[in-house]
Here is the input.
Amino acid sequence: MNFKEWELGFLSDYIVNTHHKFVLKNLPELVFYTQKIADVHGAHHPELIEVASLFFKINQELVQHLKNEEEVLFPAIKEAEKHASQLVKSTIISEITRMQGEHEFAGGAMDTINVLTQNYLIPDDACNTYRVSLKLLEQFEDDLHIHVHLENNILYPKALKMAE
Here is the structure.
């Protein structure tokens, strides 16, 4: 799909319906699973304690982040497509500036989880919950990279240009 050709409102809706729904569905499960495997396997795999802690922070950050995008930024972008008032333009600029920092945190935390788990390598002593957790973390990271790419490299630059 050539996302660069899409209208910004349509791309915003796509991001919400595809990536935000995925994140919101998977965050609670992953918080639960990462804590569970840290509790059960943390003595032999201390990296899981850090994974659980990082993912808890990702959860806290992303829930608010997605809410701000859906309730503030994306409506402002859609409004600017119709009529770009100075208030809407300044909202777009300030929200995107903040959101990019939040993207850096989430992406960096997932990169750290990837390193800690040796690219989601399943150890010999892993139970089924451990296996499922690593697979879900890997899928979450893959989705997050696409999600952040769509926002940072397509949606945000076009929205900022519109807000100039």
